[in-house]
Amino acid sequence: MSTDLDDPRFTAVGLFAEAYTGLTSRFAAQFEEHRLSAVEFEVLMRLARSPGNRLRMTDLAGQTSLSTSGVTRVVDRMDRDGLVCREACPSDRRSSYAVITEAGRARLDQVLPGHLALVQQWFIGQLSPEQLAGMLESLRTIRDAVNPCATAGSADQAAVEAA
C-alpha cells in the first residue's frame, strides 16, 4: 500500500514547520544583538509574564522546550549573568524558583521593541484580525493537547500569592 504524499496532514505540518523555522531565524539575529539566545529570551519572557515574576523550575521546564536538566543549565548560566536568580520554595525544600532580576528585566526591555517589530512585520501583520483570532484559538487547542504542562505554575502561583 502506497502512502498518499499529497495528504493534507503532511501539508499542514510542513507549513507549520516552515513558518516556525522562518520566524525563528528572523528572531535569532535580533536576540544575538542583545546577547541572548532564543531559549534565554523564552525564559525571561515566561518569568516576566508569570505572577511574581517567578516560576518553579519544574513549571518552567513544562512551559518551555527544555527538559528539567536543560532548564537547570540555562538558569545556572543566566544566574551567573545576573539575569535570573534562584529562590528556595518555602513550602517544598526540594523545589526552587527561577526569578527574573532587575538586570534580566532591563535586558528584556531592550529586546522587546525590536522583537515586537519583527513579530508585527513577519507574523501578526501577515494576518487579518479574524485570521489571527482563529489561529490563536487553534494553536491553544493544539498546545494544550501536546503540552498540557504549558501553563503549569501560572494559575497556581497566583492563587498562592493571593492567599
Task: Write structural notes for this entry.
With about 160 residues, the protein is mainly α. The chain has a single domain, classed as Orthogonal Bundle (Arc Repressor Mutant, subunit A), CATH 1.10.10.10. The longest helix is centred in the N-terminal third of the chain and has 26 residues. About 65% of the residues lie in helices and about 10% in strands. It is globular. It starts with 7 loop residues before the first helix and ends with a helix. α1 packs across α5 and α3 crosses α4. The protein has a three-stranded antiparallel β-sheet. The chain has seven helices and three strands. β2 and β3 form a beta hairpin. GO terms for molecular function: DNA-binding transcription factor activity. This is MarR family transcriptional regulator. One of its GO terms (biological process) is response to stress.
Key terms:
single chain, DNA-binding transcription factor activity, 7 helices, 163 residues, HTH_MarR-typ, MarR family transcriptional regulator, WH-like_DNA-bd_sf, WH_DNA-bd_sf, mainly alpha
